[in-house]
Write a structure and sequence with these properties.
- β5, α7 and β6 form a beta-alpha-beta unit.
- α7 packs antiparallel against α12, α8 packs across α10 and α10 crosses α12.
- The protein is built from twelve helices and 15 strands.
- The protein folds into two domains: 209 residues, Dihydrodipicolinate Reductase, domain 2 (2-Layer Sandwich); 150 residues, Rossmann fold (3-Layer(aba) Sandwich), CATH 3.40.50.
- Bound molecules: NADPH dihydro-nicotinamide-adenine-dinucleotide phosphate.
């Protein structure tokens, strides 16, 4: 199973999603009240790739955008299955340091041997016109250098979260993409969540009055052992904040429509666990956004499953719990007049194929990328402020604008 939410949800009951739900259009969303408990636990998760599931063949067609997946780890295995199911994109190539592993994956998706590349083969990628774009699924510290190589090879780039290890690297990437005339899109699948979009719409439209607070928390027991790249700051860019706190940072910024004015924070490295010698295992922050909106956030690699968002409006509260699952979305609304709690359920729709299809549209010039590179930069700016506040024990101010 793959990382982040899947790591979170590995312990949660799995529920395979139906093709019917998967194919529903956004306009067909039926909001239904559900019996409490249906989504109990950490949320729903599409069943991921298993060796027993039938292989899907992905073939070149002029209408489909060929994507090379770079780095064949756990998350790549999860997204490849979904990429192969897309209408407008398909896995055209693999870029890896492990060609034996890649050959088995290539066979599964009908990718020819000639389309298996090493990390130094970007010149060969440049020569292959069937590869229109890359999806970078490497350790965070390698995102920027590979994205730059891919842009130089004339490819559009979809890059896993966070966009780079630092905001400065991410800005350089965005500049390179602009100069090359290529799309650079952070692979923020949560943007493609119906429940998240519904919640953000209520913030924008003032449906429940002004927004006053945003609490976003995410944590789980990290199972990766010592030696994993996530514990090496040069490869990870940081600890749990960079890995999963980024989801809460995204949600807070999206809800508030910008960066905070100031941040205070505390970070902790769990003693006695060698994995956390150089990176935080837990972090918590309070941020103040324009209009006095107060945001509390936390990330932890040692909680039991936690993944939630609560928005406090003048006239209502709104809960997403889980907030950013790979799939499966439930919203609770606390409303006045009369005092009541409503529970809304959104159809099960896989975010990843929708993300690929939006990216493919952007590559083909059919629409702008729904997640701009500037979103990836802003998240890194806020995470750097949080980390600086935790390290200094002071409140860090961010520039307006
Ligand atoms: P893994 O450790 O499972 O895989 C990383 C892969 O990168 C490796 O399998 C390897 O592939 C390649 N690699 C190249 N150089 C190195 C190196 N020095 N050390 C380790 N691996 C290396 O990580 P994940 O798949 O969990 O994460 C990959 C990316 O995906 C990260 O950016 C992460 O933040 C993101 N992610 C996003 C999620 C989401 O929900 N959006 C969920 C989980 C992760 P090979 O053997 O082919 O060379």
């Amino acid at each position: 199973m793959f990382g982040d939410d899947a790591r979170m949800h590995a312990q949660a009951p799995k529920m395979a999603f139906s093709m019917e739900a998967q194919s529903m259009d956004i306009h067909d969303i039926q909001r239904r009240r559900v019996v409490a408990g249906l989504l109990a636990g950490g949320g729903l998760l599409a069943s991921g790739t298993t060796d027993a599931s039938p292989p899907r063949r992905a073939h070149h067609a002029p209408s489909r955008v060929g994507i090379a997946v770079v780095g064949l780890g756990e998350y790549a295995a999860f997204v490849l299955e979904r990429l192969a199911s897309c209408r407008t994109a398909y896995p055209a190539a693999l870029v890896t340091g492990s060609k034996d592993k890649a050959r088995a994956i290539a066979a599964r998706y009908g990718i020819p041997d000639a389309a298996i590349h090493g990390y130094d083969d970007y010149a060969r990628l440049a020569d292959d016109e069937t590869i229109v774009a890359v999806h970078i699924c490497l350790p965070v510290g390698l995102h920027a250098q590979h994205a730059l190589k891919a842009l130089a090879a004339g490819k559009h780039v979809l890059c896993e979260k966070p966009l780079a290890a630092t905001a400065a690297e991410a800005r350089a990437l965005a500049d390179a993409a602009r100069d090359a005339g290529k799309v650079l899109m952070p692979a923020y699948r949560a943007w493609f969540s119906d429940a998240v979009q519904d919640a953000l719409g209520r913030c924008r439209e003032g449906t429940h009055g002004a927004l006053a607070s945003v609490d976003a928390h995410k944590g789980f027991h990290l199972r990766q052992p010592a030696g994993n790249w996530r514990f090496d700051p040069a490869l990870s860019g940081g600890g749990c904040l960079t890995d999963i706190g980024i989801y809460s940072v995204q949600l807070q910024r999206w809800a508030c429509g910008g960066l905070p004015r100031s941040v205070t924070a505390v970070a902790h490295r769990r003693p006695g666990d060698a994995r956390f010698a150089q990176v935080e295992s837990d972090i918590g922050w309070v941020a103040q956004f324009d209009g006095g909106v107060l945001a509390t956030g936390s990330a932890s690699w040692r909680y039991r499953l936690q993944n939630r968002l609560r928005l406090g409006f003048e006239q209502a509260w709104l809960d997403l719990d889980p907030a950013t699952p790979a799939m499966g979305e439930r919203m609770r609304l606390g409303l006045d007049g009369p005092n009541r709690v409503e529970e809304l359920m959104f159809p099960l729709r896989d975010q990843v194929p929708r993300m690929y299809e939006a990216f493919a549209d952007a590559c083909m010039g059919r629409s702008a990328p729904p997640v701009a590179a500037s979103e990836g930069i802003a998240d890194l700016v806020m995470m750097e402020a949080i980390r600086q506040a935790a390290a200094s024990g002071t409140t860090v101010a961010l520039p307006a604008g």
